[in-house]
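Reviewers of the previous submission asked for a worked example of the structure-prediction workflow described in the proposal, so we include one complete record here. The input consisted solely of the amino acid sequence. No template or homolog information was supplied to the procedure at any stage.
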Amino acid sequence: MTDNLTQSPGCSPQTFLDFPLQLNLDQLDADIAVLGIPYGKPYRTHELANDQSLAPDAIRQSSNMIDIEYTLNHFDWDLGGPLLNDQDIKIVDCGNVTADLNDPEEHYRRAEQAARLIFKSEAILITLGGDHGIPIPVLRALEEINQKITLVQIDAHIDWRNDINGQKEGYSSPIRRASEMPWINEIVQVGIRGIGSARTGEVEAALEYGADIITAYEMHEIGIQAVLDRIVDDGYYYLTVDADGLDPSIMPAVMAQTPGGLNWVQTRQLIHGLVNKGRVLGMDLVEIAPSLDVGNTSMVHAERLLCNFIGATVRAGYYS
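From that input alone, the workflow returned the following structure tokens.
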């Protein structure tokens, strides 16, 4: 029995779209599991609990601001019918991974253990972060799948730093760490633009690995279908979405607003296209800073992004 891996959301009793709360991951019975991982590994002590650590509960609260019956049962034009397509799909919210604020390493250890249990149960994992360091333990947990996995990243930045101030698992390093995992195969990075933490050496390391870096400008020129065509068919995939990969006109609540990102139509097309190429084992949505939102714009698009992912997997026959 694994105890104390997760706890009720801070906005308790609210869960994402009011789906049932399931904290006992040893007996997980679900098709889709939502998991909050609030804390990344800081480069500096004062960064441990930042605004992004509030995002998992802020997304949950936003999802409950509208009538749940409306979201679940009304016709959704993004999907061509109700969210779950009148199918018996079981979705649970596993709460937030617990933390020991005296030991930043413990949060990642618990996150990896929780993710491993979810993948072992064969549920699809939707992770709510947190900064972009939090996919690292999730990606480690993908070892449970025993398959070669294509990593697809939506981001303004390539995130290939080896370390910052000696910290190798912070928010500038998740793709570098992923490249070291034997079960991660192709890496496709979409929406890259502007100035990030990468220097020429990090770009060279990414290209030497074989990462397919598709800048935002190339993406806008060739279109999302051409991006999808560059991703191997009939594979296993994991999707990591840094909110700053989306254009700030639809996702203003980020720390590094950078013009030129994916718009909503492109984001939706990429999600549906990837889901229908093979099997997406999970996805995360990270780097939302709730206090920077403008008119709830970011939260509306976060809810739509997650619902489109759920609805697309239902219609792709993942649970039949």
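Strands lie at 6-7, 32-37, 91-97, 124-129, 149-154, 184-192, 212-215, 236-242, 279-286. We consider this example representative of the routine output the project will generate in years two and three.
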